[in-house]
Every structure is written in structure tokens, then in C-alpha cells.
Amino acid sequence: MKCLGLTTVFATIAALGLVGAAQAATVNGATSGLAGANTELAFDEVPLTTNDIVTDQFAAFGVTFSPNLVYYGNPAEYPNFTDPALGNFSPIVNPFFLDFTSNVTAATFAIVTNLGASTFTALLDGAEVESFSATTDLVSTANFFGFTDILFDQIRVDVGSNGVMFMDNLAFNAAPTVSVVPLPAGLPLLLGALGGFALLRRHRVT
């Protein structure tokens, strides 16, 4: 059983609010992506040319791709796409991963594939947090997929049918950074003294 560190635990609480206040949600075939996201990428933020291998070129924006994806300057016109886009073929890379450079609480992207069932999995430190499968195709206008209201640092995509896809318009929210403030060195002594005074007072009363 994997134990989360204090930083991860506090980040989870900060990201999701009070315990039990928020429920994990999947974005399964939406007509629009994450609204008001901290980061939105149309993949035109970095100067690339068609057929360039894409791994860490977008790391400064908070995401890398593994094993790798391929940049396409002018893919066909698909719903919710704006040139350019990323693909996973030549050769086919399936599954592929979106690796966020820090923990995130939500992420969505538009994806098109040949008609089939694709699986989307959110992971944190390599452990599965949430997963779902959905029908993906080339023509649906409801082609945004992803996760909200959970803490994760990676999305695995297993593409159905013949395993090829284009993706565009990635949006995500970074989890707030929470620092663990160390206790003052004298605080345990102070608490011990207060406990002693309380004990003395109790003996006097009885």
C-alpha cells in the first residue's frame, strides 16, 4: 500500500477543499473543455514544424509527453480543433502519456480517433486514481475528455480501434502549492508546561 507524503496530503486537502466536500468527476464526451483553466495549450505556443517529435517542448507550460507524440501543423478539420495538433502515429505510439510537471486537479483535451473505445486513466505517482472508457471517433462535437476534482500528475490514454489519434486544446489546473510550516522549537516545552499547570490545578481542586 502506497503512503502519500505530507506535502501530497496537504495539497490534496487544499485542492479539493474540506474532506468529502468534492467528488471526483470524469469529463466523458463534453462539447467544451475545462472553463477558466490556469493553462490552455493550442500547441502553437512553441515554433515547431510538421513531423517534429514532441516530448518536453511544452515543459515550460507544465506538461510533457511520453513515449512521444508528433506535431502536425495542418491536420484535417475536426470538431473543436484549431491548427496545429499532436498525433501519435508514424510510428503508432499507444498507449501514450501526458506527464504534468507538477500535480494538477483537472485536465481536459479534445481527441479524435477512428471509431472505437478509448480508455483514459488519471495517475498520481504511478498509482491509478480514476479511469473510464468511452467511444471516440472523428466526427463527434462532444470530443473533450479528462478529469476534474482529483489530484493527479499523469494521464494515460489507450486509443481504441487501430490506435491512432489527434489531440488538441489541452487545458489544466495546477494544484496549489502547500508548504508545511515547522513547529517552533520551544512549542513542545510550552505545551508540556501548560499540561503540567493543568494537572496541578486539578490536584488542588480535588
Keywords:
transmembrane; 206 residues; eleven-stranded antiparallel β-sheet; VPLPA-CTERM protein sorting domain-containing protein; disordered N terminus; signal; Jelly Rolls; transmembrane helix; membrane
Task: Describe the 3D structure.
This protein is mainly beta. The chain has one domain (6-205): Sandwich (Jelly Rolls), CATH 2.60.120. It has helices at 6-16, 187-205, and strands spanning 25-30, 39-41, 53-54, 63-66, 69-72, 85-87, 96-113, 116-124, 127-136, 144-158, 165-174. Strands 1, 2, 3, 4, 5, 6, 7, 8, 9, 10 and 11 form an 11-stranded antiparallel sheet that branches. Strand 8 (116-124) and strand 9 (127-136) form a beta hairpin. The protein is globular and about 70 Å long.
Please tally the β strands and state the result: 11
The CATH architecture is Sandwich
What sequence of helices (H) and strands (E) makes up the elements?
A: HEEEEEEEEEEEH
Structural class: mainly beta
Number of helices: 2
Q: Oligomeric status of the shown chains?
A: single chain
The residue fraction in helices comes out at: 10-25%
**CATH classification, class level:** Mainly Beta
Total number of distinct structural domains: 1
CA(first)-CA(last) distance: 49 Å
As a whole number of angstroms, the C-alpha radius of gyration is 23 Å
The percentage of residues in β strands lies in 35-45%
pLDDT under 50 segments (min length 5)? 1-22
Most strands sheet: 11 strands, antiparallel
